[in-house]
Amino acid sequence: MATQHSRSAARLMMTPAVILLLGWMLVPLVMTLYFSFLDYRPLRGAFDCCVGFDNYVRFFTSSSFWPSVLTTLQMVGGVLAITVIGGIFLAMLLDQPIWGQGVVRILVIAPFFVMPTVSALVWKNMFMNPVNGLFAYLWKFFGLTPIDWLSELPLFSIIFIVSWQWLPFATLILLTAIQSLDSEQLEAAEMDGAGVVNRFFYIVLPHLARAITVVILIQTIFLLSIFAEIFVTTGGSFGTRTLTYLIYQRVIESQNIGLGSAGGIFAVILANIIAIFLMKIVGRNLDK
Amino acid sequence: MARAVSTRTRAIYTVIAWAIGLLIFFPILWIFLTSFKTEADAISDPPLFFFFDWTTENYGIVQERSNYVRFLYNSIIISVGSTILGLLIAVPAAWSMAFVPGKRTKDILLWMLSTKMLPAVGVLYPIVLIARSLGIYDTYVLLIGVLTLINLPIIVWMLYTYFKEIPVDILEAARMDGASLRNEILYVLTPMALPGIASTMLLNIILAWNEAFWTLTLTTVDAAPLTAFIASYSSPEGLFYAKLSAASTMAIAPILVMGWFSQKQLVRGLTFGAVK
Q: Which of B16, B119, B227 has the CB atom closest to A267's CB atom?
């Protein structure tokens, strides 16, 4: 189809994108890898070459490593559970014949477009503040003692805020997937006497399986690097220090570049493991 | 799978859906309402919903105190700049992969996607170091460059899925008629691809506008966009809910409107074509 000429022209047109992304990926990554083998603490003037795997050992054995892994898992797991289950429910609800469906859809999607710093600050101050927050009023209204959300239930609060931002994403994608479900199939099952529960588990859920997987993988990649929400609310205190935040603190706050870089390499490997699964699904789709 | 149902069932679903929709949207509505209150009304007990003295003074104060317009300007420059630059690089790439695919095209596409998965924190220090040694820390050049690179995979992918849907026959016909590569792109492909390019652009501006890792870590004053402006409200002094709300409203309103227009494209863009 294409001539040799257009073929080489096509390669040429692809080159800038490829070179830029290659550079973007390789240069910093190689630097991080290099730093991870140094004792490099600019504030103390320390710069020792080749300390071997010292940074890795120190990073993994430090008292903050495992708690941060646990926090990360809880945060990612919590948000995934809420958004996927809530998203399936909302997608099914929005798929029903309702008046003003378009408007409801817009209302549900809106939080996704709210800047993370805005969303975190507004929830922190206007809702979760123990004195003037809206939740405090609500609690007092029911005769309960207001909760200081971000210091008493910090992890839950951040999971809640992040879930509010990502629920629209899950809903939107699952809704798109659910709309491609053949309604005749459901009607046939209904006529054959399949109840609501059976129809959900044997028809709707299998149909959504791929979309759910995609939602989980994409969200995991974004959620692993949650930053602004923690930065603005707790600053990593009260047990909300995730792996990403821990590395950020090592590199930027305590300026221990070697240690932080070792952590960074670990984060890269972790993200790659998840990425492999996502790529397989996306790649399969390309062949169609 | 919408089916014919009785009016009563429909009414029940409608009520539930609207209740949940409003609940999810409520925080945004609350920001909007609070931005028109006085600081005293903003923390009144019980909370005031619609019956308060509406005032627009907060918007003026926010601008006066922290020069909102400057941050807004930075946000626009950075998000629009990185999107246009990204499109300039991505359109030719996506074009060639969609219309002149080679053996490696699929691998290259997947590899590009994989660069998006690179955790930012893993390369944070090198970027800071490079930026400082080049003297471009806290400048538009740096921010536009970084945001272009982090969003480039999404731009290429979105464009690719759009271009894929354009019938190749038309391009071949143009080639038969002797259209040069440049003319083929300019006069045949571009008009047909324009809707796809437009929605890619829209989604990208949204993503760049809301990006909050690099914009917070790579800026201090000069190039700081709205994400940093809002973050500066995190250690407040005195009464500030109404002002925070006014600032927030101004930061999210333009993007909210754009987002509603691009909701269909959002699915395609964010799932890399895996869900359409």
A: B119
DSSP tag of A197: H
Reduced to 3 states (helix: H, G, I; strand: E, B; else coil), residue A265 is helix
Closest approach of B183 to chain A, Cα-based (Å): 13
CB of B162 within 8 Å of a chain A CB? The answer is: no
Interface of A with B in 245-274 (CB under 8 A): 247-248, 251-252, 257, 260-261, 264-265, 267-268, 270-272, 274
The pLDDT value recorded for residue A288 is 53
Amino acid identity, position B237: E
Shortest alpha-carbon distance between residue A92 and chain B (Å) = 10
CATH of range A25-286; options 1.10.3720.10, 3.90.79.10, 3.20.20.70, 2.30.130.10: 1.10.3720.10
**Residue A121 phi, psi dihedral angles, 5° rounding:** -65, -40
User: Cβ of A107 and B216 within 8 Å?
Assistant: no
Q: What is the ipTM of this complex?
A: 0.82
| Shortest Cα distance, chain B CAs vs residue A50, angstroms | 18
Q: Quickly name the fold that domain B66-270 has.
A: MetI-like fold (1.10.3720)
Q: Is B238 left (phi over 0), alpha (psi -120 to 50) or beta?
A: left
- Indicate the residue type of A117: T
pLDDT of A1 strictly over 60: no
Contact between A13 and B92 using a beta-carbon 8 Å cutoff: yes
Residues of chain B whose pLDDT is less than 70?
1-4, 235-239, 269, 272-276
Q: Rounded mean pLDDT of A254-276?
A: 84
Domain ranges of chain A: 25-286
Instruction: Tell me how crowded residue A201 is: count the other CB atoms within 10 A of its CB.
Output: 12
Contact B106 A286 (CB under 8 A): yes
Q: What is the pLDDT of residues A132-161, one digit of tens each?
A: 778 888 888 888 877 888 777 888 888 999
The CA-atom distances, in angstroms, between A86 and each of A74, A98, B146 are 17, 19, 34
Closest by Cα among A245, A254, A207, A200 to A223: A245
All CATH 1.10.3720.10 domain ranges of chain B, comma separated, are 66-270
Cα→Cα distances A141→A144, B27, B46, B47, Å: 7, 19, 9, 11
Cα–Cα distance for residue pair A172/B262, rounded to 1 Å: 12
Give the total residue count for chain A: 288
